[in-house]
């Protein structure tokens, strides 16, 4: 509490800034908050993903050195959470891409940030998922005109000697990284109307293994108007446009330059937010945002050159072309009410939101075919794909209420969050493959409800804090939180889309040995198998994959216990215990035809030993690959699809984190964390009953893409197992 007495004779503006205390009784979240002084003064790679390592317990899949990974999205995990539940936001607007759960819809200008807040666990009702939440707060105009410009550079010559591979080639290295930009803001009408704008560009150039240039350019422009119409009514309008241009995406020793892609990711984002405070005890905010974005991958070889893979496994010729449009709309209302009942002070938080995302994508294959060298004379494999066009829409409705009560040294919060998630596959038309119209005919899909999945969850949140000491500088905390998984456009809704990826595989005689399938060679075609195609009725519009109508989301129950102590105004230490139980984890079960025409879920008894992997394969360390058994369906059984249902597996997570934070003061700061984690699977009898006996590697939540014949492990080697029933492609 500050008592300020100002003289009426003073007419200059005074800007008062303050920072949150490191040990805050009312803070319900765990994580890290990086203020503008940290962003501007502490050397980092100037990319929001590079900041994640400054939050306790967060594990990131790469290290951004000198900006070499800027403009690339990292995969990261929180304390017992999956990467698919990570959330991005800018000024409170959700920027998570539900077509790639856990990823961001767009890229960011580091110079536009005022603050970055990273949350790893919370009893706060506004945090939706169990994953890591990254909220970025942008700058705004004030009563004084302020501006800054910047230019940063990393020269490739400044890099130490890059690592060398076992064959003598250099590993990836920096060619040059540059960032430049400026921002300015100030008053249009003092005390009532302010403006701010920011422009920034980054140029990241890396030399990948093999010597090709991988170049990424980020372009970003922000503009913001803040207004104060009356003392009770204020608001902000925000327009933000940006693009990511990537030249040579996928460059590497296994791909010729013409098979790499040039990427664009344009996005235009509009936000209007208004706040109204009818009294000192009541406060409302409402916002609407509109995000119109795109994503394209154009092959350097164009669409008039056939793609093929030579005998050395190098991709040549050209590659597929991909175009996607996305539209995200959000509406949100928040309310805050402050009251006192006797000695108890209440801060009531309530609100609701509606968010929709709609995506349409098209994949085009040059000349409607591609060829793979089999290394067996002039007999090669030609694949005829369908040019895939799909469209999805998802809807996320939420409501919440939470009361935070303070009495003496106690701070107690309790609340409930309601979420409803559903979606649909939209109507589209898919063209025929003109080279194989009988097996890949034109299809007109009218859309469906994705099997009727509709996730409704109620999540309780409870938090208790007690302050110790005369200065209340030691806090004891405890909380319970439940979180619900995010529904994905592709991973959940798109499973029941009959216009998924479809391929027809044939052998043919390559008469001139040029790895190009010519019309004159059509007479030598010999059918191998089909993927995603109903060969008995190719025009049928039914998905091979199905969703259980009773499918529910993965739920995470979290308990945290923490002790925090403020050693000084700028130095604090903490110890946090986090326990999570993750349950209702979905699993994919194989659907088979048992020969009688009936479709059922496969069990372990339906498999027989198919052989051993390994053989002549040598691991990177020079040792032979282990001989691992794989299993195949019995002769009279055949796969017809897969079934996604709620399973009986669980995960238990236990983590302990020790933290020490020194806020930037007197020219130095520090953040240090030591984490211990124990994360275990618990397999239920139903999962064991339906699981393929082949030992496969699954993702962190145990989800499989149906690839039950692929084994990946053993020193980083990937083994591609092709059975007589199914074929799955892996990058080697």
Report on the architecture of this protein.
A hairpin with a 5-residue loop joins strand 35 (586-593) and strand 36 (599-601). The chain contains 2 helices and 43 strands. With 732 residues, it is mostly beta strands. Mean pLDDT is 88; it is low at 698-732. The strands form 9 sheets. It has an 18-stranded antiparallel β-sheet that branches. 2% of the residues lie in helices and 53% in strands.
Q: How would you summarize this macromolecular structure in one to three sentences?
A:
By secondary structure, this protein is an all-beta fold.
Output the radius of gyration.
28 Å
Task: Give the number of helices.
Answer: 2
* Main beta-sheet annotation: 18 strands, antiparallel
Total strand segments: 43
The portion of residues forming beta strands comes to over 45%
Q: Show unreliable segments.
A: 698-732
Structural class by helix and strand composition? mainly beta
Residue share in helices? under 10%
Characterize the overall form: globular
Mean pLDDT score, rounded?
88
Topology:
Blueprint: E1 29-35, H1 36-41, E2 59-60, E3 76-77, E4 87-90, E5 93-94, E6 96-97, E7 103-104, E8 113-122, E9 133-138, E10 146-155, E11 173-189, E12 193-207, E13 213-228, E14 233-249, E15 261-264, E16 267-279, E17 282-299, E18 307-309, E19 315-316, E20 321-341, E21 344-364, E22 370-376, E23 379-385, E24 388-407, E25 410-425, E26 428-430, E27 443-445, E28 454-468, E29 474-484, E30 503-509, E31 526-531, E32 545-547, E33 555-568, E34 571-583, E35 586-593, E36 599-601, E37 607-612, E38 629-633, E39 638-646, E40 650-665, E41 668-682, H2 685-690, E42 711-712, E43 718-719
Parallel strand pairs: 4-9, 18-22, 32-39
Antiparallel strand pairs: 1-8, 2-3, 4-5, 6-7, 8-9, 10-11, 11-12, 12-13, 13-14, 14-15, 14-16, 15-17, 16-17, 17-20, 18-19, 20-21, 21-24, 22-23, 23-30, 24-25, 25-28, 26-27, 28-29, 29-33, 30-31, 33-34, 34-40, 35-36, 35-39, 37-38, 40-41, 42-43
């Amino acid at each position: 509490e500050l008592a300020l007495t100002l003289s009426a004779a003073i007419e200059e503006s005074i800007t008062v800034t303050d920072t949150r205390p490191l040990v805050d009784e009312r803070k319900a979240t765990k994580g890290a908050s990086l203020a503008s002084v940290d962003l501007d003064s502490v050397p980092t790679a100037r990319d929001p993903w590079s900041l994640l390592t400054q939050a306790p317990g967060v594990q990131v899949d790469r290290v951004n050195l000198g900006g070499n990974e800027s403009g690339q999205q990292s995969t990261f995990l929180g304390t017992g959470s999956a990467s698919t539940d990570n959330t991005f936001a800018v000024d409170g607007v959700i920027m998570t891409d539900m077509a790639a759960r856990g990823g961001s819809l767009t890229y960011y200008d580091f110079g536009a940030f005022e603050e970055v807040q990273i949350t790893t666990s919370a009893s706060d009702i506004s945090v939706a998922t169990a994953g890591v939440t990254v909220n970025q707060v942008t700058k705004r105009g004030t009563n004084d005109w302020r501006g800054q410009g910047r230019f940063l550079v990393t020269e490739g010559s400044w890099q130490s000697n890059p690592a060398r591979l076992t064959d003598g080639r250099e590993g990836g290295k920096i060619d040059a990284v540059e960032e430049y930009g400026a921002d300015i803001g100030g008053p249009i009408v003092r005390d009532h109307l302010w403006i701010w704008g920011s422009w920034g560009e980054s140029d990241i150039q890396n030399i990948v293994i093999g010597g090709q240039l991988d170049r990424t350019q980020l372009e970003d422009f922000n503009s913001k108007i803040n207004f104060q119409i009356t003392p009770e009514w204020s608001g902000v309008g925000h327009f933000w446009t940006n693009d990511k241009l990537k030249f040579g995406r996928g460059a590497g020793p296994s791909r010729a330059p013409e098979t790499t892609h040039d990427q664009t990711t344009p996005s235009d984002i509009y936000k209007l937010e208004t706040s109204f405070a009818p009294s000192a005890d009541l406060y409302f905010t409402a916002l609407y945002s509109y995000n119109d974005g795109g994503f394209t991958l154009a092959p350097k070889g164009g669409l008039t050159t056939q793609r093929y893979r030579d005998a050395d496994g190098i991709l040549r010729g050209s590659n597929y072309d991909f175009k996607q449009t996305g539209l995200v709309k959000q509406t949100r209302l928040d309310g805050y009410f402050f009251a006192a009942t006797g000695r108890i002070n209440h801060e009531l938080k309530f609100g609701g939101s509606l968010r929709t995302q709609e995506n349409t994508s098209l994949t085009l294959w040059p000349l409607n075919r591609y060829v793979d060298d089999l290394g067996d004379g002039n007999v090669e494999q030609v694949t005829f794909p369908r040019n895939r066009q799909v469209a999805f829409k998802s809807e996320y409705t939420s409501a919440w209420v939470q009361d935070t009560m303070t009495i003496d040294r106690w701070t107690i919060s309790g609340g409930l969050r309601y979420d409803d998630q559903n979606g649909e596959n939209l109507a589209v038309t898919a063209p025929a493959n003109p080279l194989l119209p009988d097996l890949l005919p034109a299809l007109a899909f009218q859309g469906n409800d994705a099997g009727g999945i509709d996730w409704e969850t109620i999540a309780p949140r409870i938090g208790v804090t007690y302050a110790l000491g005369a200065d209340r500088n030691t806090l004891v905390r405890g909380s319970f939180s439940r979180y619900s998984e995010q529904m994905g456009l592709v991973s959940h809704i798109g499973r029941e889309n009959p216009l998924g990826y479809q391929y027809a595989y044939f052998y043919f005689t390559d008469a001139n040995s040029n790895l190009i399938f010519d019309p004159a060679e059509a007479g030598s075609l010999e059918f191998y198998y089909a993927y995603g195609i109903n060969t008995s009725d190719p025009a049928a519009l039914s998905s091979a994959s199905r969703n259980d109508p009773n499918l529910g989301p993965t739920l995470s129950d979290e308990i945290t216990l923490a002790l925090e102590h403020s050693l000084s105004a700028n130095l604090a230490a903490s110890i946090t215990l986090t326990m999570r139980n993750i349950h209702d984890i979905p699993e994919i079960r194989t659907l088979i035809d048992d020969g009688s025409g009936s479709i059922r879920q496969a069990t372990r008894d339906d498999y027989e030993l198919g052989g051993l992997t390994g053989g002549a394969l040598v691991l990177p360390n020079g040792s032979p690959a282990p001989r691992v058994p794989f299993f195949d369906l019995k002769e009279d059984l055949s796969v017809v699809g897969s079934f996604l249902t709620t399973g009986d597996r669980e995960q238990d997570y236990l983590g302990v984190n020790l933290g020490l934070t020194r806020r930037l003061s007197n020219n130095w700061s520090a953040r240090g964390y030591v984490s211990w984690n124990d994360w275990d699977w618990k397999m239920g009898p139903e999962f064991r009953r339906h699981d393929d006996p082949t030992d496969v590697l699954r993702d962190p939540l145990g989800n499989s893409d149906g690839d039950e014949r692929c084994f990946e492990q053993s020193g980083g080697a990937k083994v591609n197992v092709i059975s007589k029933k199914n074929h799955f492609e892996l990058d080697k």
